[in-house]
Amino acid sequence: MLLELKDVEAGYGKKRVLSGVSFAVRERELLAMVGPNGAGKTTTLRVISGQIHPVGGAILFDQEEIGHRAAFENVRGGISMVPQGGKIFKPLTVLENLEMGGYLLKSREDIGKSLEQIYNLFPILKERKFQLASTLSGGEQQMLAVGRGLMLRPKLLLLDEPSLGLAPIILRDLMRAIFNVKEEIKNSIIIVEQNVNEVLKIADRVYGMKLGKIVFHEEIPEKLLKDEKLRKAYLA
């Protein structure tokens, strides 16, 4: 396993959000996390990335406890998070945004290799590399955010609601691109997503969350699409 959460408790101040969350992520797999708003999905990603620290339980990454680490240490260690909305640098060009994502790379050669890989995954970013990020469409901006998150070639990529605000046809293109990221870079991905129908088409496994707890795990995501009782209980 690349990542393991064991009975993780976490929240914000006195507000407890996660209650005994346990799950694991294998190497080179795309794991979907689904559930209603307020289930604790985003908080889970923030705990993994180091933006907040657990108050109980353990987080193991490459068999090393990382629950105490700062976010920048986890970035150096191979964890990259693309937050909800992408949060690209709109006054900068596409190329400048990507270079910002590769700030820890030590040479122009390393930066060039990462850029080439990202341009192969997202050809539109190469076409638009000298455009201001603010001029991109919503789907292109999200691709840029994902590309920026890949510049350091992370072992684990965390994606928080990448489809937010996208039209259905753009959403499908983005999901195909995310699937290609896993296939080409051979990293692991955790994707939190409300568009269940689309994300389950690309996921290797799926965990469902509700009220800060894992409530189901499915090894064959397609089954979830056909289980109306489960959908109504946990995805409404």
What does this structure look like?
With 236 residues, the chain is an alpha/beta fold. The protein has a single domain (3-234), classed as P-loop containing nucleotide triphosphate hydrolases (Rossmann fold). It has ten helices and ten strands. The chain has helices spanning 41-49, 71-77, 94-101, 108-121, 123-127, 138-150, 168-185, 196-202, 221-226, 228-234, and strands at residues 3-12, 15-25, 30-34, 56-61, 64-65, 79-82, 156-160, 188-192, 205-210, 213-218. The protein has a six-stranded mixed beta sheet with strand order 6-7-8-3-9-10, with helices on both faces. Strands 2-1-4-5 form a four-stranded antiparallel beta sheet, with helices on one face. α3 (94-101) runs parallel beside α6 (138-150) and α6 (138-150) packs parallel to α7. It starts with a strand and ends with a helix. 41% of the residues are buried. The mean pLDDT is 92.
User: Helix proportion of residues, in percent?
Assistant: 25-40%
**Helix/strand/pairing category:** alpha/beta
Number of strands: 10
Strand content: 25-35%
